[in-house]
Amino acid sequence: MSLEEFLSYRPFSYKKILHEPSVDLEWNIVDAYDLIDYVLHILPIIEKNKRYSKLYDFVAKKETYLSLYKELDELYDKIITNPRFKGTNIYEEREGDQTIFYHNHLIHADFLVARDNAWRNILLYEEY
Fold first, then answer.
1. What are the backbone dihedrals phi and psi of residue 91, each rounded to the nearest 5 degrees, phi first?
2. CA 31 to CA 127: how far, in whole Å?
3. Would you say 39 and 65 are in contact if contact means Cβ atoms under 8 Å apart?
4. Residue 59, Cα to own-chain centre: how many angstroms?
5. In 3-state terms, what secondary structure has residue 31?
6. Could you tell me how many helices (H) and strands (E) the chain has, helices first?
7. SS3 string of 42-94?
8. How many beta carbons lie within 10 A of that of residue 36, not counting itself?
9. What is the pTM of this model?
């Protein structure tokens, strides 16, 4: 299944939603793009900090995430006509051990790579 088809998929439970499926696709592309963008920002933090050694396996997947990011970028340009705005950097390393916070995002990025709908369950901007 292509990435566009996967992101266009509307689970059966969403049948009663009033907006067009194209709106789902746009939201899904933005959410997926933001998730992978986030992951690509946290991988260097994980790579250089020994306290995140439990997460080093995800650093080996960097090329996979980069490839998906490029695919998402093409979909973004193709489907979403609004310009992207880069705001403040929400990816700065936080105080304390953020292993669980980072791990959750990395797991959901893996779900997206595997075309598993569980990727949608992550809340990117939730405060911990």
1. -100, 5
2. 17
3. yes
4. 15
5. helix
6. 5, 0
7. HHHHHHHCHHHHHHHHHHCCHHHHHHHHHHHHHHHHHHCCCCCCCCCCCCCCC
8. 26
9. 0.79
- Residues 73, 108: Cα–Cα separation, whole Å: 18
The token duo for 11 is: 């689970």
Encoding tokens for residue 19?
A: 């907006």
Selection from 124, 128, 99 nearest residue 109 by Cα? 124
* Helix-helix angle 21-48:99-113, to 10 degrees: 130
Count of beta carbons in the 10 Å neighbourhood of residue 49? 14
Provide the residue ranges of all domains of the chain, joining segments of one domain with +. Answer: 35-82+96-128
What's residue 12's pLDDT?
A: 67
E strand segments, the chain: none
Distance of CA 91 to CAs 36, 78, 121, Å?
12, 26, 19
Interval 56-97: pLDDT, tens: 999 999 999 999 999 999 988 888 754 444 444 445 556 667
**46 token code pair:** 């994980």
Segment (H or E) for 28: helix 21-48
> Tell me, what DSSP letter sits at residue 13?
G
